[in-house]
Batch of 2 targets.
Target 1
Amino acid sequence: MTRKIHIFDTTLRDGEQSPGASMNTEEKLIVAQQLIRMGVDIIEAGFPISSPGDFRSVQEIGRLAGDSCTVCGLTRAVDKDIDRAAEALKTAKRPRIHTGLGVSPSHLRDKLHITEEECIERARHCVSYAKRYVEDVEFYAEDAGRSDQDFLIRVIQAAVDAGATVVNIPDTTGYSLPEAFGARIKSLSDNVIGIENVIISVHTHNDLGMATALALEGVKNGARQIECTINGLGERAGNTALEEVVMAIKMHGEELDAHTDVVTPELTRASHLVSRITGMNVQANKAIVGANAFAHSSGIHQDGVLKARNTYEIIDPADVGAAGSEIILSARSGHAALRHRLSELGYTFKDEEFDDVYNRFLEIADQKKEVYDEDLESMVQERQREVQA
Ligand code: KIV
Ligand code: ZN
């Protein structure tokens, strides 16, 4: 059996921080319901001290989730934040407090104005303070991707010694190269005493378009939790996309020695739901859930897919809940695709007729981005009239 990778969904916290994507409590509850249906392990429901609305969202999602998953609230390494999160999480059967602080030189020097020793002490304190309220405490080392590795080991050691159940290693700015990030995770596994009893989590951002690769490199090197969002929603270029890491793990489970419990046929529904509620469109060529993820437009590809789907499709659309593969007819389509579509519409032509049909099709296709069934119907009817005349 491969290792179980816990899927920590932060669409409702980090995802919602995306400009223009904020959600009210009712909207968050609808998304949370879908996350539960999809089988995620942890829902980060909000940042309770940030607003009364977020406090209520964490409370309501805690109530909704019951036993089905862990519900988590974010805090800074500040006592009053932790008090507030603990209060909001009272409704949850499986509550988790997610607390921590920045650990990179720029966070220490320019944002927090603290020394390394003070940072370690605050890490130790926030975890033990949160432990007064809940058993399950996750510590985050913000901007770990740009931190000094020896110092990171010392901070994580303090969090583990204080009782953290999960240690989150974020590449907050999406700066790292995957291999280097993987080496950081390995170095923590090798050097932090007691880490084998703690889950290492990876939380990566997409500033260089590598969030998914970073998360998977983390998994290869010992991480057992991935923090991610539906559609990769999140600040700036976004967070790791849940649908991407889940499907990559599904396709490469043996090599990664990993599996998740996500119900993948729910992925497309989740994507559409989050897009509709937040008003954030999903780019057509987005992996897994984009409108074109299973669309084939060029003649060579269409010919291949019509002969055998796996020539150009690595995922069965049903596996992610997509409607199915699509053959898009355009000026790049070849004979095979046109013949196939016409026969689906009930029209068959002899070989000697087909060149004429295809040339008529190209004339239409050169004037449009896509040729629809209605265009084909009128083309065939016009040809029939001309042939009969
Ligand atoms: O990107 C980040 O570092 C975060 C932390 C607050 C976990 O979102
Ligand atoms: Zn983040």
Target 2
Amino acid sequence: MSLRDLTASTELEIGACASLENLENDRFTELLGNEFNRLALENDLIWKVVHPERETFAFKRVDKLVDFAERHEMAITGHALVWHIENPNWLVKEDWRAVELADVLRSHIHTITERYADCIDTWDVVNEAVDDTGELRETFWLEHLGENYIDDAFYWASEHTDADLYYNDYGLPYNEAKQDRVYDLLKDLLDHGIPVDGIGIQMHCVGVHPTPEQIQASIHRFQELGLDVRVTELDVAYHNDKRPNELKTAQAAYYQQTVSACLEAGVEGITVWGVTDDQSWITSWREYPDTYTQQPLLFDDEGRKSNRMRLWHQYSANTEMRDQLLFRIYSISSS
Ligand code: XIL
């Protein structure tokens, strides 16, 4: 049974990210379409890809991924409308006046959200706006536009789409200062009537492995603000110096405890950041390949279900978990 079959009778979404290149691989596309019911666009909607010149949008790649998702009845997450990296030079090298840059940002958000209003039902509107010390991250956007860029981005997105609008960030379950700042930020947005629907907890468990208690506490804290919570970018890796003796077993256990903690806490969905180990960002991002173990996902290089996956299956299929899923559905339908 595939993961999406397992969750078919529930409202739980089980997603994976992909870039257009991944669709050239048959094994990858088969797994993506069969196992998952949500597709997160990994790279093709980031500024430098989708908006390479000031007057040019490049939509072909996104259109192909959208087409794939629609043929496989997958929901789509757009990632990301505002981020501090992966931006084109024409944008970041210019010394903008605030009004002019605000115009550029507004038109970027309007153009993209309007074009995909019928097919993208969830947007990461602002990605990683708080730094690891718990301050607003000193980004190009903050420098030129001030704090209001966050409010504006959500507001502008809401003008052209009915999609759910998310704030997305990493480190939230274990970095208290960051969690507090993100909490204050989102509370403030909500208090001012800014249309924020949810928070994406990225959950890159790369060298840091938050406990189930930490994970659940962070999920509940944001739910208490009235936000939907999703796990948006799950993967698991260990620092090479702290590699567990039985890597696969340790990793499987960690996947199991993490996924079950998230399900118990009532997340809307869980998206893993990739499908097969060999195309995970951890095999290519900065110093990551030399630093961390290289089997972060649910399927190995050959597309075989890894230990982690078998345990996830086993766990999801057991009675206790079914009860939890049913309870969740009951809570949703009775609310
Ligand atoms: C990564 C992609 O997976 C890589 O392919 C890309 O080179 C860099 O970005 N947080 C995010 C994601 O929000 O967009 C990042 O994805 C991983 C960290």
